């Protein structure tokens, strides 16, 4: 049976250490070669797989070079260039408007503060955290995506549901030196083993400390529903 460590802090540390051993090369899987490309890739990745985004950005990043290109193109044309991405019309609007602001208010540079980033169209705290961490080497929070959200709840690190609240709790218990890596480790484990619908608890390095482990627990703490 999975028995969590005595405190959430110990649980978070143990999880991080074990996952780091399991996924030593864990890192961001979006492809980009500069900060603007990173920002655009992250905006596109909302409710879309990184794999699909990487396919689409291959030609996108060849066609458009800098914020002015995106700001000046008709929105319909940009949307057409993104048409294999979920919500491509909305995302084309966000990208165009964010690039207009970057060109006009930020001298063509992607801003490096949370406030300025979250002022951009289509950029919430999660996107801003990714851009700060990978574009500016500024780590001031933990990126909470769907995998982090699910695993944190399943593993008993939080009972919160909203990403902002989960992040607030995680930064209290995850060692600061792991704030960036924690996300990538959860994403790798969430893709490989602890999947949303059918986690493979029998082959999980966290099984003995996981309070949702299927063979002994009836409830998936991520959803609060029975397995
Ligand atoms: S795969 Fe199972 S045991 Fe492992 S973290 Fe997910 S729910 Fe827990």
UniProtKB/TrEMBL annotation:
<dbReference type="GO" id="GO:0141016">
    <property type="term" value="F:G/T mismatch-specific thymine-DNA glycosylase activity"/>
</dbReference>
<dbReference type="InterPro" id="IPR005759">
    <property type="entry name" value="Nth"/>
</dbReference>
<feature type="binding site">
    <location>
        <position position="201"/>
    </location>
    <ligand>
        <name>[4Fe-4S] cluster</name>
    </ligand>
</feature>
<keyword id="KW-0456">Lyase</keyword>
<feature type="binding site">
    <location>
        <position position="194"/>
    </location>
    <ligand>
        <name>[4Fe-4S] cluster</name>
    </ligand>
</feature>
<comment type="function">
    <text>DNA repair enzyme that has both DNA N-glycosylase activity and AP-lyase activity. The DNA N-glycosylase activity releases various damaged pyrimidines from DNA by cleaving the N-glycosidic bond, leaving an AP (apurinic/apyrimidinic) site. The AP-lyase activity cleaves the phosphodiester bond 3' to the AP site by a beta-elimination, leaving a 3'-terminal unsaturated sugar and a product with a terminal 5'-phosphate.</text>
</comment>
<keyword id="KW-0004">4Fe-4S</keyword>
<dbReference type="Pfam" id="PF00633">
    <property type="entry name" value="HHH"/>
</dbReference>
<dbReference type="GO" id="GO:0140078">
    <property type="term" value="F:class I DNA-(apurinic or apyrimidinic site) endonuclease activity"/>
</dbReference>
<keyword id="KW-0479">Metal-binding</keyword>
<dbReference type="GO" id="GO:0003677">
    <property type="term" value="F:DNA binding"/>
</dbReference>
<protein>
    <recommendedName>
        <fullName>Endonuclease III</fullName>
        <ecNumber>4.2.99.18</ecNumber>
    </recommendedName>
</protein>
<keyword id="KW-0234">DNA repair</keyword>
<keyword id="KW-0238">DNA-binding</keyword>
<feature type="binding site">
    <location>
        <position position="204"/>
    </location>
    <ligand>
        <name>[4Fe-4S] cluster</name>
    </ligand>
</feature>
<keyword id="KW-0408">Iron</keyword>
<dbReference type="InterPro" id="IPR003651">
    <property type="entry name" value="Endonuclease3_FeS-loop_motif"/>
</dbReference>
<feature type="domain" description="HhH-GPD">
    <location>
        <begin position="44"/>
        <end position="192"/>
    </location>
</feature>
<keyword id="KW-0378">Hydrolase</keyword>
<keyword id="KW-0227">DNA damage</keyword>
<keyword id="KW-0326">Glycosidase</keyword>
<dbReference type="InterPro" id="IPR023170">
    <property type="entry name" value="HhH_base_excis_C"/>
</dbReference>
<dbReference type="Pfam" id="PF10576">
    <property type="entry name" value="EndIII_4Fe-2S"/>
</dbReference>
<dbReference type="Pfam" id="PF00730">
    <property type="entry name" value="HhH-GPD"/>
</dbReference>
<dbReference type="GO" id="GO:0046872">
    <property type="term" value="F:metal ion binding"/>
</dbReference>
<dbReference type="GO" id="GO:0051539">
    <property type="term" value="F:4 iron, 4 sulfur cluster binding"/>
</dbReference>
<keyword id="KW-0411">Iron-sulfur</keyword>
<keyword id="KW-0540">Nuclease</keyword>
<dbReference type="InterPro" id="IPR011257">
    <property type="entry name" value="DNA_glycosylase"/>
</dbReference>
<dbReference type="GO" id="GO:0006285">
    <property type="term" value="P:base-excision repair, AP site formation"/>
</dbReference>
<comment type="similarity">
    <text>Belongs to the Nth/MutY family.</text>
</comment>
<dbReference type="InterPro" id="IPR000445">
    <property type="entry name" value="HhH_motif"/>
</dbReference>
<keyword id="KW-0255">Endonuclease</keyword>
<feature type="binding site">
    <location>
        <position position="210"/>
    </location>
    <ligand>
        <name>[4Fe-4S] cluster</name>
    </ligand>
</feature>
<dbReference type="InterPro" id="IPR003265">
    <property type="entry name" value="HhH-GPD_domain"/>
</dbReference>
């Amino acid at each position: 049976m999975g028995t969590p460590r005595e405190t959430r802090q110990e649980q978070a540390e143990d999880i991080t250490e074990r996952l780091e051993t399991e996924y030593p090369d864990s890192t961001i899987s979006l492809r980009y070669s500069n900060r603007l490309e990173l920002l655009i890739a992250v905006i596109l990745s909302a409710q879309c797989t990184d794999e699909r985004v990487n396919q689409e950005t291959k030609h996108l990043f060849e066609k458009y070079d800098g914020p002015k290109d995106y700001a000046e193109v008709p929105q319909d044309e940009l949307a057409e260039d993104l048409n294999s991405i979920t919500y491509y019309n909305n995302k084309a609007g966000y990208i165009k408007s964010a690039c207009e602001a970057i060109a006009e208010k930020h001298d063509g540079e992607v801003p490096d503060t949370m406030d300025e980033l979250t002022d951009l169209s289509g950029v919430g705290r999660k996107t801003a955290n990714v851009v700060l961490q990978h574009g500016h080497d500024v780590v001031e929070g933990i990126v909470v995506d769907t995998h982090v959200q699910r695993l944190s709840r399943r593993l008993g690190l939080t009972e919160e549901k909203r990403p902002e609240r989960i992040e607030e709790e995680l930064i209290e218990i995850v060692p600061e030196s792991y704030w960036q890596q924690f996300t990538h480790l959860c994403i790798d484990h969430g893709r490989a083993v602890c999947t949303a619908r059918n986690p493979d608890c029998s082959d999980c390095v966290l099984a003995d400390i996981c309070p949702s482990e299927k063979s002994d627990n009836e409830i998936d703490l991520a959803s609060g529903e029975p397995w």
